[in-house]
């Protein structure tokens, strides 16, 4: 009887271990996302009300962008992947124009004197650059590393995030962004045709 209990426990352990291995190789089991890929939020939660500052030191917050699709990028000048990613953020802002607002929030502790030289080097003309020297946004958004980006809808809800550097104007990410902004040109054309 004693052997039967041990044998049963061993058999159960083997089944559990084997079952875990089978689940890992199961194509139906979701994989963990890779760096640079969009991770949809579930459920959609409001973006934090945390404030940051503009380059002149004036307070700012995400509430200022209500009614717009916002791509928030947390970055730092000491972060090499962040610097490599910046030109693609500039291209996306230029390509999508006023359909999206790209907000790059620097987590550098040195403030504008540290960040401003990089704005010119990176060729940032369209991206809105802000500062968060106390890392309040980083903490509020529970960021694990830089760069990390968030897409926020017109109602201020976080639609998803990208951890690590991304090529924002690559077809896959550009298609995701376009799905969020919609095609206003088609809507405007339809409204114009409907009017007398």
How would you characterize the overall build of this protein?
The chain contains 6 helices and 8 strands; from the N terminus they run H-E-E-E-E-H-E-H-E-H-E-E-H-H. With 196 residues, it is α+β, with helices and mostly antiparallel strands. The chain has one domain: Glutaredoxin, CATH 3.40.30.10. The protein has an 8-stranded mixed beta sheet. Strand 2 and strand 3 form a beta hairpin. The N terminus and C terminus are likely disordered.
How is this structure best summarized?
With 196 residues, the protein is of the alpha+beta class. The chain is built from six helices and eight strands, in the order αββββαβαβαββαα. The chain has helices at 2-25, 80-96, 112-122, 136-140, 171-181, 184-194; strands spanning 38-46, 51-54, 59-61, 69-75, 100-106, 128-131, 148-152, 157-163.
List the helices and strands and how they pair.
Elements (H helix, E strand, L loop, with lengths): L1 H24 L12 E9 L4 E4 L4 E3 L7 E7 L4 H17 L3 E7 L5 H11 L5 E4 L4 H5 L7 E5 L4 E7 L7 H11 L2 H11 L2
Low-confidence stretches: 1-30, 184-196
Shape: globular
Number of strands: 8
Number of helices: 6
Residue share in β-strands: 15-25%
Strand order of the largest sheet: 1-8-7-4-5-6-2-3
Helix content: 40-55%
Largest sheet: 8 strands, mixed
What's the architecture in CATH terms?
Answer: 3-Layer(aba) Sandwich
CATH class: Alpha Beta
For the record, give the distance between the C-alpha atoms at the N and C termini, rounded to a whole number. 90 Å
Going by CATH, the homologous superfamily would be Glutaredoxin
The total tally of domains equals: 1
